[in-house]
Please model this.
Amino acid sequence: MHRDMWILFLKWTLLGSIVGLLAGSASAIFLIALEAATEARMNHPWLLYLLPLGGALVSYLYFKAGKNSAKGNNLILERIHDGQETIPLRMAPLVLFGTLVTHLFGGSAGREGTAVQMGGSLSEWLGKLLRIGPAERKILLICGISAGFGSVFGTPLAGTVFGLEVLAIGLIRHEALFPAFVASFVGNAVTTHLWKVPHAHYEIGAVPDLSFLLMAKIVLASILFGLTSLLFSELTAACKKWYSYFFSNPMIRSAVGGLIVIGLVFLVGTRDYLGLGLPLIHSSFEEEVNPLAFLWKLLFTSLTLGAGFQGGEVTPLFAIGATLGHSLAELLGLYAPFLAALGFVAVFCGATNTPIACFIMGVELFGSEAAVYLFIACIVSYLFSGHTGIYSSQRIGVSKSHRVSIPEGASLGSLKEREERRGREERKGRKEKT
Model:
């Protein structure tokens, strides 16, 4: 028994470390290149006008060579759940190139999707290379998710839990806990210390004393954070449907999406909502922001990702949450950086259905002084975002409410399809009656 545990311990220490080394190095290269692409866009504003061409180019590459890589993070989740999908090694360079093109030309997108997909692709390749069995390959994929997430944000503990928690709502794969921690810890160490890539940190400022009135205000704000998560998830999914309905060709779809983003820039008269949104986050903690900044960033990101541009959702969700928290602070009579920090993690939590990982991320980024408030914000946002999310292949292991019956093995995508089918049948029935 003890001998088996030692063998298991050493085995996953080695495998997790290799995954962390691969994913951490990939994240470092990505972050360095991403900073260069963002700087180039800022120094050469005319690059924005190439966004439609860049989107069409990336869609063409995915159409010709990507195969099932276009599923992105959902492909990795499906591979872990069913074991039938294959994750090609080509996913890593494709998503890296596609995300850099998105940011070089001004699309509004994030970076976690890229890091997770690179981590998943590289861990799958490692599993094939070492001829690891199917069950352990799934654990290796979880390691890839954790290492990618932890290394790209500099949050190894949150990365560990995110890889376990994102698979199914209400369930955690504890057998992968130690391997995921090793991969995330090593991945972050490789990115931060070996490659010397820094991560952004924000000051939450003074944390108010606990009171009933303060708790009530935080719960109210957290409800709004959860509803904003729901809005983002639903709008992004709707944009994908609209683009696909009107433009069946993926190249044309991305080109049109690029033109729409350019048009929005002229409509709002600013380029603040392009790219990751890091300046918006910075302003939320140290300066002032437009009261509707969260809504504009949400719209820019949904329209960008819905058109097929590559990148993640999480960093824009950070920006949406932080700016919304900042805007609500004055209305609720709270310190703006404090509520911005709660919004930062809570909107992300509602969109990914990962309350524990988001709470841990909040503690890693903002300190333990606000732990109680961070936890409240996460669990309330998680509840009010409903059975929606940015990952359609995320399973529903346990329903968020006993009043909502969920079929066994259902995913967010299949649940949404069932509800849409039921809606069509009800509309058809009403028409027949009339």
